[in-house]
Input
Amino acid sequence: MRALVTDPGAPGALRLGTAPDPEPGPGRLVLDVHHVSLNRGEVIGAAGRPPGTVHGFDAAGTVREAATDGTGPAAGTRVVAFGEGAWAQRMAVDVTAVAAVPDGVDLAAAAALPMAGLTALRTLRTRPILG
Output
């Protein structure tokens, strides 16, 4: 499958390449990635990852294969996910790191929720309200 992988010789230490197809397992599903979210820290951090690593953490798409133990959402469910290897056509992710996306919510918008959304929420919860 196609994936954005780390390569110390490439500009920004990232290049379009290939990676093995992920497989489901107990507590892990395979997601068809439709959208990802690029975060500054992830892009900068690519240089420190082993060559060939599929990078990225935020993704949204549909469950391709449910977890082999029957946990988590079923195949075909629209989800947002936070897990290593998101910048690829497919990713394997722990069922505890996904959330169903309601039909009225755009998957492209949902892809920005995990890291950026949680960072914003934590900031709002830890900072005094101005005014």
In short: The CA atoms of residues 65 and 109 lie 23 Å apart.
